[in-house]
Predict the structure.
Amino acid sequence: MASAFEYAPAPESRSVVDIAPSYGLFIDGEFTEAADGKVFKTVSPSSEEVLSEVAQAGAADVDRAVKAARKAFEKWSALPGSERAKYLFRIARIIQERSRELAVLETLDNGKPIKETRDADLPLVAAHFFYYAGWADKLDHAGYGANPRPLGVAGQVIPWNFPLLMLAWKIAPALATGNTVVLKPAETTPLSALFFADICRQAGLPKGVVNILTGYGDAGAALVAHEDVNKVAFTGSTAVGKAIARQVAGTDKKVTLELGGKGANIVFDDAPVDQAVEGIVTGIFFNQGQVCCAGSRLLVQESVQDEVLDALKRRLSTLRLGDPLDKNTDIGAINSAEQLARITALAETGEAEGAERWTAPCELPSAGYWFAPTLFTDVTQAHTIARDEIFGPVLSVLSFRTPDEAVAKANNSQYGLSAGIWTEKGSRILAVANKLRAGVVWANTFNKFDPTSPFGGYKESGFGREGGRHGLEAYLDVR
Amino acid sequence: MSDNRLSVFKTYKLYVGGKFPRSESGRVYEVTDSKGKWLANAPQSSRKDARDAVVAARKAFGGWSGATAYNRGQILYRVAEMLEGRKDQFVREVADAEGLSKSKAAAVVDAAIDRWVWYAGWTDKIGQVVGGANPVAGPFFNLSTPEPTGVVTVLAPQESSFLGLVSVIAPVIATGNTAVVIASADSPLPALSLGEVLATSDLPGGVVNILSGKTSEIATPLASHQDVNAIDLTGADAALAKELEIAAADNLKRVLRPPVSRHHPEKGAQSAAPSSAVDSDGTADWTADPGTHRLTAFLETKTVWHPTGALGVSGSSY
C-alpha cells in the first residue's frame, strides 16, 4: 500500500551520546576489568555496528561485587531513610537531565524506536526513582509493621527489552528500603546500565551500594547462587525463572520473578473498533512485541472479526519500520540475531501447523535484525503460536462467541501476566476482569505502566509485584 | 451409666470433596498417644488420594472464590460455633495427641476456636488492607485487588495437631483459596475430626480436604502436581522442604517456607526473624499474633486499568 504521506527522514542526533570504546564492570564505585580479562562486544541491532566492548563478568567478579555490596550494606541500611531518599531524588533528577542522551543510547543498543525510549522508557525510569525515593523515609507507614528492615544484598538480573526501565524497577525499591545491589543487565544491552553507574557517581552514591556486572547467563546464575545474596529479583524467561526457583530452594533467599506471558486481548462486538485497533497495535507491536505483557493473542468476537481484522490490517500497513533513531519510526529492530531466529522459527511453525499468515507490506533494511509486523488467523488454541510466548511482532488471532468462551480461552494458558478487554459495557468489563487470571488487566487501553501501579503475574508468569506499595515487600524482611 | 458398657470406637476417615472416604489404598496406620497407647487406626493416604483431593479442591475453587467475602466470613464463624459445641471431644483428642493435661488442652482448643473467629473477621477486610486505588500519572482509573491463588497444598505442623492445624487452614480459605491439607503424621486425629466439623459448618465440599498418612508420601505428588497453585511447607523438615520446593518450581507454585528462624549468625546479613511467631529455639509459637502473612502468602494482586476520559482544553472527551 502506498503511504498516504511521504516522510523525509527525521533522525534524532547521535551526537548527544558519547559511547566509549570499552567499559569495565562497576564494582565498589570503580570501573574495573573482569578478573579473567574477558570482554564481549555489544552491537546496534538496527545496523550490526559494534557500539562498544564491555567486560564480561565471571564468578570471581560476582563474588567481588557481592562483597562490595555486603560491605556497603551496613552503612547504607543505617542511613536515615530521609537521606537515602535524597540520593534517589538526585538520581531521578540526573536521569531527567540526561534523558535525551539515555534515550538515544537505549535506542542504539536495544533497537527500539526513539519515540518509545524518549516518550515511554525514560520518563518512566525517572518517575520510578522519584516514586520510590519518597518511600525511603515512610516505610513505617507502608503497612509492613514498624521499622521494617531491608534484606541485605539484592542480586538482580534483568532482560534486554526495557534495559533501563527494568533496572529502575529493580534498583529503586531496593535502595529505598535500604538494600544494596548487584545488578546484571542482559548481554545484548549492557550500555544503559553502565551509564547508570556513572549517574550513581554523579549523585555521590556511596561506593558499593550499586554494582553493575555486565555479562552472560553464567554470571547471572553465579549471582543468584551466591550464598551471601539475600534477595533475588529476576525478570526474563519462564524457563530461567523455574531454574532460579529450584536454585534457591532450601535457602532463606527471598525471590521475586517476573516472567513470560501470552496475554489475551479480548475485543467484544460492542467495542469502538478504531480505539480497539489502536489498542491491539499498542498491545503487540509496542517495542516490536518484545514485551512480557504483550497482548499477543487477539480474541475477537466472531460477529465483528472481519471488520476488526480489516481495520487492523489497514492500520498495520501504515506503520513505519526502519531506523530506530528516526522520530517517525513506529517499528524498530529486533534486539538480536538470536531473538530474530526464534521469532522466525515460531512464525514458520505457525504456518506449518496450518494458521494463515499475513505480513504488513514494508521493506526491511538490509543490515540489522528485522521482522515485519505479522498476524496469524485461523489459529486454534492447540497451535504453538497460541501457546508459546513469541516475544516478537507476531499476533495470533482467535475468535469467540460468548463472554464465557472468551474468558475460558483467555485463561487457557500456563501464563497469567496481562489481559485486555475492549467493550463499552461497564458491567462486562468488571465481570470479565474479575474472571481473568492475570496480574494486569487493561480495559479499553493496553500497555500502560506507572510506578504506583503494581505489576506482576499469576501462574507461570512469576510471583511478587513490582511497583507501588506492593513493590516494597519484595525488599523488606517481612512476610 | 454402667461401667462395663463397651464404648463405640470411631472409624477415622479422610475428608475429601465433602465426603468421608477411606484411603483408596485400603491402608491404615496405628495412631498412638504420647505414651504409645493405641488410640485409633488412621487412613494412610496414597498419591491417588492426593490427586483426588486436588480434583475436589479445584472443583470447589470457582464457587468458594466467587462467594462474597461476607459469606466466607459467616461460614468461618460458623466453624467456630460448631467447634465450641464439640469442645470436649477436641480437648480429649488434643490431650491424647500432644500429651497435654486436660486444662492445657482446653486452652489450646479455645485458642483454635478463637483463631477461626479471627480469620472469619479478616475475609472482608484483607482486600482493603492490601488492595486499593493507585494514583497513576494519567487519566486512568487504576485499582489493585487481592485474589486467591487457587488450590493450596498445606503441610500442617507436625507438633501442634490442632491449634497449628487451624492456624494454617483458616488463612488459606479465608481469602477464597481451596486447600488440600496433610495432617500431622503422628497426630492426625484432631485434623480428621475437624473434617466432621467443617462438613457441618456450611463450608462447601472440597474447600478443605484433609488427608492423613506419611507426610512425604502425600506431599511429593502434590508438590509436583500441575493443578496445585501453592504449597505451605510448615509441616516439612528442612530436607523435605527443600525437596518439595524444588518440585514446586515445575509450575512455579507459590511456596511458603517452614517458619524456622532466619538468623544466620555466621553471615553478615543479620536479617531478623520476621515475626514473633518463632521462638528463640526456632519452633513455631502458635499462640502468637498470627499477623497477616499467612493470608497474603496465597494472594495474587490483580491491577485493573481503565481510562477516565480527561477533560482536555477542547472540552470533554467523555
The longest strand of chain B covers residues 140-148. The domain at 28-32+45-307 of chain B is CATH 3.40.605.10 (Aldehyde Dehydrogenase; Chain A, domain 1). Chain B has ten helices and twelve strands. Chain B touches chain A through 46 residues (CB under 8 Å).
